[in-house]
Amino acid sequence: MLPNSKNHPPGGQHSVQMTRRKEYRARWLGLWVFFVATNAFGADPSTTQLRQFTVTDRQTGLTWLRCSVGQQWNGFRCIGVPRMLTWEQANEAAAMARAELGGNWRLPTVDELQTLVCEPCTPPKLDKRLFPDTPAAPFWTVSDAPLSIGRIWTVNFYTGHLFARNTKSMERYVRLVKSAPPKKTKSSK
Length: 189
Prior knowledge:
The protein is an alpha+beta fold. 23% of the residues lie in helices and 16% in strands.
């Protein structure tokens, strides 16, 4: 049973219980996601830390987490076990990333995720220097398959191909992305 706010012990133990509550929630969802450059649910990551475990595409302006959901960036590579999630759990993971990391982290569109495919690469078919330890398997997108009701597009990094046969209850891997902030324009006087 999780501690509740009416039942917390005196002193500094309340923050420990709050940390345990968050930890329990992450385990329950099977996410072990984003606590990459932080002290296990501690302070928000710094801008420098965020740059270390993200990759920004200069052409699209998209910023990608280097590791799949479930893994952590250790400064050199992704460690831990990537998690396979249902589509709903993948969207919950994105919501957790927004809360924990700040920014508008989300599932990519099929077109966005396809930009990571490297056709001449051996499986997994993406740049392994930028996205190390990526499973050679299907990854969720946010895109509905227009001719298949209730199906979602995935990108399979074993083949580099797109598939529209995935129901939301299937489990797939997840890589999150965020769009570039809108450019500020000078207002004319």
